From TrEMBL:
It is found in: Cytoplasm. The keyword ATP-binding applies. This is Proline--tRNA ligase. Homodimer. CDD domains: ProRS-INS, ProRS_anticodon_short, ProRS_core_prok. Its main location: cytoplasm. It comes from Anaerosphaera aminiphila DSM 21120. It holds the Pfam family tRNA-synt_2b. Catalyzes the attachment of proline to tRNA(Pro) in a two-step reaction: proline is first activated by ATP to form Pro-AMP and then transferred to the acceptor end of tRNA(Pro). As ProRS can inadvertently accommodate and process non-cognate amino acids such as alanine and cysteine, to avoid such errors it has two additional distinct editing activities against alanine. One activity is designated as 'pretransfer' editing and involves the tRNA(Pro)-independent hydrolysis of activated Ala-AMP. Keywords: Aminoacyl-tRNA synthetase, ATP-binding, Cytoplasm, Ligase, Nucleotide-binding, Protein biosynthesis.
Length: 562
């Protein structure tokens, strides 16, 4: 592309609401323009970067076996009502009505939509696992849109959804996505940490966030220097370490007792019989075993399964009504939870069941890939432990490290939350109807662009990593009125074009200073300057990051670029 023809209205100054470097530089470098609060246009340069990010995301998703589709950005209200999220999403959801008063939303995410898509056509275990993704514009009426495209109200997200027959195959699908995300963010050249996440509005049992480190990030994370542990600070509170050899797969194979009688169950659970007899009775006698847990049921279901699954018993989820009727029948007033020894306890004081398989099971304490009692032990503590600067991780003697960062990706094990709400089932090998186990996986495509800039700029502008640079090379002709300089510039330009190099030619009739400023600002990685020595076919070669200049021949320049 020739800059004389390009729509690249760079700016020397931007309005004061651009607080952070990425916002300022993307505006100044003519990558984006604001059209309303949190709503942006991508100009030619910016859109090229977005497409580069999309390409990397697509390649890694495809390689991981996910298949790309495209669903509408408009989603019907009914499916969101079925999951209970029409109301729960709150004011962040953009809602709209058609001419017949039918209600829709502009999709902020698409768990319900994808589940609805596959549920009638995926009938058999033979069609699973399945993983579908899209790169689609998402809409969230953020309370505080800020930092340009970092927290926008309209943004591009890659969202993927996996459908599995069991928690263990879900774990495999999840880990496949985990590894694909590592590749994506490596290729985006981001310096990031993977942290245990908060499940927030998604529900489910396990999640990780991919956090691009940046002082301007809105998220805070705590981690151990040895790299064994990281979590968002509201969740983070590592205390224990587990043997490195223990992979999640091995941990899942932990044998669980085969409980046949009420007595065995009671003993195993260590609960007072008179308090829980009826519940246990239900558990052992019903076929399949019934476990009822109020609150975040998916979270507990997947964790319970790994403990209580026996050859003779299966666990099934119950509806709220069923739980309520059993509760009132057996006279329980409080919620039922699990404590650290895998007891079923019926205790009014237990309000949250947390971290059975990943944590030390005291509020705020988490262990990655460990099982309580087998991999670690510890005291139960009711209080939330706050981690402060200077605190020591008792077991390892390490001091907590803290960092700020930008959430660029988030993966979740959803369990059966959405398949239950939307009735997405499959028939297993025995022709038995079962709920599909789901995961969801998001990458902030446009947010990644701003995160990359936050990590790659200097006082003169952006320094794009090659993998996402809008163009790889920029040729600056110092004096475009000089025929020899222009001829050489054009010659190099067309040779690069012929060999597929993405190249810009600054042929504008501007002062050299203006051209240099712009090329620094827009951050093209490799630069060729055609000046006085054009006759000898000697050019000045430099790269954006260190700006070291070298005079080399055109021939050498080609060799460097290829
Ligand atoms: P945040 O905590 O920043 O509000 P989130 O946890 O609500 O993000 P998810 O629902 O996990 O976001 O969505 C998946 C990904 O979409 C996020 O990891 C992020 O990269 C991106 N994303 C979410 N909200 C926005 C937004 N307002 N603008 C740009 N990207 C966003
Ligand atoms: Mg959010
Ligand atoms: Mg978040
Ligand atoms: Mg998130």
């Amino acid at each position: 592309m020739k800059l004389s023809k390009m729509y690249m209205p760079t700016l020397r100054e931007v309005s004061s609401d651009a607080e952070v470097a990425s916002h300022k530089l993307l505006l100044r470098g003519a990558f984006i323009r604001k059209s309303a609060s949190g709503i942006y246009t991508y100009l030619p340069l910016g859109y090229r970067v977005v497409k580069k990010v999309e390409k990397i995301v697509r390649e890694e998703m495809d390689r991981a076996g996910s298949q790309e589709i495209l669903m509408s950005a408009i989603q019907p209200k009914e499916i969101w009502e079925a999951s209970g999220r029409w109301d729960r999403f709150g004011p962040e959801m953009f809602k709209l009505k058609d001419r017949n008063d039918r209600e829709f939303c502009l999709g902020p995410t698409a768990e319900e939509y994808f589940t609805t898509l596959i549920k009638d056509e995926v009938r058999s275990y033979k069609q699973l696992p399945l993983n579908l993704y899209q790169i689609q514009t998402k809409y969230r009426d953020e309370k505080r849109p800020r930092f340009g495209i970092n927290r926008a109200r309209e943004f591009s997200m890659k969202d993927a959804y996996s459908f599995d027959t069991s928690p263990s195959t879900l774990e495999e699908s999840y880990m496949e996505m985990y590894r694909a995300y590592e590749k994506i963010f490596d290729r985006l050249n981001l310096d990031y940490k993977i942290v245990e996440g908060d499940n927030g509005a998604m529900g489910g049992s396990k999640s990780h966030e991919f956090i691009a480190l940046s002082e301007t990030g809105e998220g805070e994370i705590a981690y151990s220097p040895s790299g064994k542990y990281a979590a968002t600070s509201e969740k983070a509170k590592v205390v224990y370490e587990i043997p490195e050899s223990e992979s999640p797969r091995e941990l899942e194979e932990v044998s669980t007792p085969n409980l046949k009688t009420i007595e065995e169950v009671a003993e195993f659970l260590g609960v007072e019989k008179n308090r829980c007899l009826k519940a246990i009775d239900l558990m052992v006698r019903e076929e399949p075993v019934v476990v009822f847990i109020p609150g975040d049921r998916e979270l507990n279901m997947s964790k319970l399964e790994s403990y209580l699954q026996t050859p003779d018993h299966e666990i099934e989820l119950m509806t709220d009504e069923e739980i309520n009727s059993i509760n009132s029948a057996v006279g329980f007033t409080g919620p039922i939870g699990l404590d650290k020894n895998v007891k079923l306890i019926f205790d009014e004081s237990v309000t949250k069941i947390d971290n059975m398989s990943i944590g030390a099971n005291r509020e705020g304490y988490h262990i990655k890939n460990g099982n309580y009692g087998r991999d670690f032990s510890g005291e139960v503590c009711e209080d939330l432990l706050e981690v402060k600067q200077g605190d020591i991780i008792e077991e390892t003697g390490e001091e907590y490290m803290f960092a700020r960062g930008i959430e660029v990706g988030n993966i979740f094990q959803l369990g059966t939350k959405y398949s239950e709400a939307l009735d997405a089932t499959y028939l297993d090998e025995n022709g038995k109807e079962k709920l599909i186990w789901m995961g969801s996986y998001g990458v902030g495509v446009t947010r990644s662009v701003s995160a990359i800039v936050e990590q790659n700029y200097d006082e003169d502008g952006i320094i794009w990593p090659m993998s996402v640079a809008p163009y790889q090379v920029i040729i600056t002709v110092i004096n475009s009125k000089d025929e020899e300089q222009m001829d050489l510039g054009e010659k190099i330009y067309s040779e690069f074009l012929d060999s597929g190099v993405e190249v810009l030619l600054d042929d504008r009739n501007e002062r050299a200073g203006v051209k240099f400023k712009d090329r620094d600002l827009i951050g093209i990685p490799l630069r060729i300057t055609v000046g006085k020595r054009a006759v000898e076919e000697v050019i000045e070669y430099s790269n954006r990051r260190d700006k070291e200049k070298e005079e080399i021949t055109v021939k050498e320049a080609f060799e460097r670029v290829y």
